[in-house]
Structures are given as structure tokens and as C-alpha cells.
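Researcher: I'd like a candidate sequence for this fold, 155 residues long. If you have to choose between options at a position, lean toward the conservative one.
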């Protein structure tokens, strides 16, 4: 017998949070992650990132991300504290009603930084299983991207 809650389409909320410690100068780490249009340099599976606003850094920056699989996501930067964090929302391209993410850097030592990528999500109507699979996908995506960033900055 199949659990009916796995077939019922509802709205679901969740959080994803992944961190990595990078042995590099904090400014070098910040410069890489805060390059809003240079995501393809470290975030996996990105074909290209295009600007949709005159603003290229800080609050008000809008970008279109084209992934290798053809998916297109539009994101707007909604908060920014230089050398510390930025937050953005996705307004299209995801199976979500709400996607609010923050990438933050926390210097630990002169040449060591903890970088955290976290998000709050609220789905479009989907089954609990579909939402769980999306959260698992996002967790892997964040972790693989952060590992890629670490590898590039420590080499």
C-alpha cells in the first residue's frame, strides 16, 4: 500500500544549509563569491550568467543563470553587507514559490574562512517525496559547489 501523503500535492517548507572552511585570505574568498555574474567560476553546472540590471554588485543586482541542462533561473540580490554576506531571491525557474538564499563568509584566522550557503524554500504544490528529492538535490548542489570553490581558492 502506498502512503497517500506521498501522492497528495501540497506546499512544503524547508531549509538547506551547507558550510565549508577554505584556507585562503578572507578578501580573496569574498571577491570570488561576491562576483555575482561570475558564478560559473565555482558553482557547478552553470553554462552562463547574464546581467538583467545595470547594477552588477550589491542590492538591486538581477541575474539570469542558464544551467547546463537548459533550466533558467532569475535571481535578485536583496541584501548585501560587503565582505560579510549577500542574500538573493529566485523569482522564476525553480519549482518553488519562495527561495531566499544567503551566502556568508566568516573569517576564522588570517588565512581561513568559513563560508556558508543557506536557504529557505517553500514549494509549489508537489508531493512530500518530490519536495524531499528537491531538498536533497539542493544540498548536493550547494556542497559540490562549495567544494569546487574551496578547490579553486586553495590551489
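Model: Candidate sequence:
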Amino acid at each position: 500500500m502506498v502512503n497517500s501523503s506521498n501522492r497528495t500535492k501540497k506546499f512544503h517548507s524547508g531549509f538547506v544549509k551547507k558550510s565549508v572552511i577554505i584556507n585562503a585570505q578572507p578578501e580573496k574568498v569574498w571577491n570570488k563569491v561576491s562576483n555575482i555574474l561570475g558564478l560559473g567560476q565555482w558553482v557547478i553546472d552553470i553554462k552562463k550568467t547574464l546581467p538583467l540590471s545595470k547594477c552588477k554588485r550589491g542590492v538591486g543586482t538581477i541575474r539570469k543563470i542558464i544551467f547546463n541542462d537548459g533550466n533558467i533561473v532569475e535571481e535578485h540580490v536583496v541584501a548585501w553587507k560587503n565582505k560579510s554576506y549577500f542574500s538573493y531571491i529566485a523569482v522564476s525557474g525553480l519549482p518553488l514559490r519562495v527561495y531566499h538564499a544567503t551566502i556568508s563568509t566568516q573569517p576564522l584566522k588570517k588565512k581561513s574562512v568559513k563560508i556558508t550557503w543557506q536557504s529557505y524554500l517553500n514549494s509549489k504544490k508537489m508531493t512530500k517525496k518530490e519536495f524531499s528529492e528537491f531538498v536533497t538535490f539542493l544540498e548536493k548542489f550547494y556542497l559540490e559547489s562549495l567544494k569546487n570553490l574551496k578547490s579553486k581558492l586553495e590551489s
